[in-house]
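Hello again, I could really use a second opinion on something today. My current little project is about how a certain protein chain folds up. You're getting the sequence in one-letter code plus the fold written as tokens. Here's the protein in full, and shout if anything looks odd to you:
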Amino acid sequence: MFIDSHCHIDFPELAARMPEILAKMAENKVSHALCVSVDLPDFPRVLALAEQYPHIYASVGVHPDYEDTPEPTVEQLVDLARHPKIVAIGETGLDYYRLQGDLEWQRERFRTHIRASRASRKPLIIHTRSASEDTIRIMREEGAGTGQGGVAGVMHCFTESLEVARASMEQGFYISFSGIVTFKSAKELQAVALEVPLERMLIETDAPYLAPVPYRGKMNEPGYVAHVAEFIAKLKGIPLEKVAEQTSANFFDLFKAAA
């Protein structure tokens, strides 16, 4: 069985097809999925999915790309994270690719999430794009890693260098690969995936975005995470069953979710 460790099935384009989405998960042996929060106004629909379906989990957080949205406080995040189906804080992090200018608000938001993670003892889901240096620096300054009293978490939809992967793993973080790793153009990322130990790896779709080959360019969904696993297995030259078993075990170990 496979687990989609990061998706957005609450987004309208997927939520409207929920029976089909769930059926495709079952057909492709995807046993669980983590529906990830991107802002507080839409958080109730994320939580509603997790409450409705036993095999769907949820997170609470505000994405770094959402500029004009209510800022969370540590207290808010900790309070919302008390729900038993909320298994993580995020997604959070830094994104200097889509937004330019003074992004100190982004860095402060990131710090808020790390502090909420430490207080709630729920792991972080981190998004970083064109901002890896500041991301790693703030993780260290705020003590996100397990060696500093934090809970660590996952570097989701990883597209950075091996150096960034190693710096993240040194803090106790897992590295999650999405459909991007299956793209022919992603040779550098594939080289990173080859070096990341299976014991530190998660797989995800980031649905509805970034569908893996052979569905590239189409709307993504959790059932397609099996194709990410298949690619990783071929890349590493190991049985698909081993990828499925280890990444699923990693998911439950990190998020402490009930199987």
The longest helix spans residues 104-120. The chain has a mean pLDDT of 97. Residues 10 and 48 are 9 Å apart (CA to CA).
